[in-house]
Each structure stands twice: as C-alpha cells, then as structure tokens.
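Q: I'm writing a short explainer about N(4)-(Beta-N-acetylglucosaminyl)-L-asparaginase for a general audience and would like to include a description of its predicted shape. Could you first generate the structure from this sequence?
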Amino acid sequence: MKAIASHNGLAAAQRAYELASTGSSPLDACVAGVALIEDDPEELTVGYGGLPNEDGVVELDAAVMDGRLHRGAGVAALQKVRHPAQVAQRLMEQTTRALLVGEGALRFAQANGFPEENLLTDKARRMWLYWKRTRSNFDDWRRPAADETDLDVEHWFATRFYGQAAREGRHGTVHCAVQGPTGDLACTTSTSGHAFKLAGRVGDSPILGAGLYVDNEAGTCGSIGHGEANLTHLSSFAAVELMRTGLSPVDAGLELLRRIAAKTPEHERDENGRPKFNLQLFLLHHSGAHAGVAMWGPKQIAVCDEQGGRLEDCTPLYER
Ligand code: GLY
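A: Of course. Here's the predicted structure. Afterward I'll give you a sentence or two in plain language.
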C-alpha cells in the first residue's frame, strides 16, 4: 500500500493512506486527501484561495481516474465550487460522460448539492490586482505607490513570477495517487490552473492522459506544472505506457521530460535552449515502486507508506 502526491500534497498523501488502510477505496481516499489541499486558503494554485484568471475569477480544473474500473472524468473552468475533484468523481460515478466544462460543470455540481461560494480570498484578490497594476505601462492602471505596496505580494512576484525561477508561481496544482491493499490504483489532479490565465483556459489537469492516467496493470502518473507541455505530449498516458514496456518509474518519467524538452517551442526556451517552464511527473508502478521527476530541480514528491509520510527528492532533468 502506498500514497504519493506532489510536494504540496503531503497532508493529502497521509490522509489518503490512512483512509485506504481503513477500508476506503483508493479513489475515495485520494479525493478525500486532495480536499484538504483544495480547502487550504494559503495554497495559491488549488481550490479555495487559488489565484484567479485575468478577469479576477477563480476557475478550477480537476479529474479523477479509477484503475479498477479503468474509468475517469474531469471538470474544467468550474467556478464557485471548491472541490472540483469531488465533482469529477460524481461525474464518473453518476453519468456516462467524461468531461464537463464551465456552466455545464457548475450546473452538474449544483444538481449534486455542492455548496457555492466566492473562491477568491482577499490575498488572491490583492495578488491579482498587483498583477493588473504592474504588467504594462500601456493601460489605464498606475503602478502601486510606495505607501500602497504590499511587501508580501511584491516579494512573491519578484521571486516566483518575474524572477529567476521564471514563472514558477504561475502554475502549481496538486496530484495524489493511491495503491490500495488489493493492489488497485487510483489518482486525482486538482488545480486553479495558471495564475491570471485567459478566462476559459483549460489546462492538462482535467484531461485524462495529460494531467493524470492510471492503468491497473501498469501504474499511475500525474503531473503539475506547465499544462500545455503535457497536453501536447499526453505525458501521463505516455509515461504509464513506458512503465508497461518495462521502464522503471524514474526512467519513464525522465524519458517524457526529455521528449518535452526536445520539442519545446522556441519562445519557451532559455538562452541555453532548455525549457523555461517547470513540469513534474509523479509515478507509481503497479509493483509499488514510485518516483518523482522534475524538468527543473530541486523539487520534491510526497510519499506515505508503512514508514510514514515524508518528502523525497525528485530526479531532475536540469538543475538551476
Ligand atoms: N498543470 C496545471 C495547469 O497547467 O493548469
């Protein structure tokens, strides 16, 4: 038995492991684990408190996949509901469909009694406003004066958005995968997507094969980072297929990162020709072996098994 998660999902992995150990299905366990992160207002890339789109509206993407049934579903650009992974699970369980977006996803959530609320926290609103006021000298907005400056917000933009770690702060996401006591696999990925994205932009997280994939006979893979790179490589599907052919989780993950790096468009490369963006894959082989890989290290993967919960280093393709 094991649960793995992205670095920001240690609590999710621990909760999922505990639930799967006490009789919950792997899917119920990972969705319940991820709900802890969706609830956290300090997590700026997931659920309640996630950074909004360019209009200041929080739009969430998530998907689930169950290896035992080989079924999955996703919801995209969902507003007002803080647990999109739960909505995706209901969609998988109650319907014959695999993807709902926007207004349709909200109506489905309403029909299922999910509470609606404003997901934009004061902190996320202040960050969005700072972005609007500083991104251009050719619009109506004036840059914040010294006495208006919010040091926390300014520091975040300097170090995570505009800084050397080029635009790491634009994307986050949480992924969690579980192998239950009978060997069945399941996983979920949940995100608020790229910060300040175009309204209606959908990333990789709600797309089966891109942001997550499970095959009970091979393994699971899920991803966080620059979603468009995953969408053009169907990275999670491809990595699981590589594990099926005999590659270890770390070799399968690194092979995908190499493929993505080789085909990165020119405008997304640094002066040395390497991708400017980050992308991490979290892999769990059906044998129970796991790995986290990152386009740019250092990064970590959360793991929970009989030795308890911990963060381990991902294997990077490149080091900063
Ligand atoms: N991987 C999250 C996103 O690109 O939306």
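A: For your explainer, you could say: The pocket of glycine is lined by residues 171, 173, 191, 193-194, 203-205, 224-227 (CB under 6 Å).
Q: Perfect, that's easy to follow.
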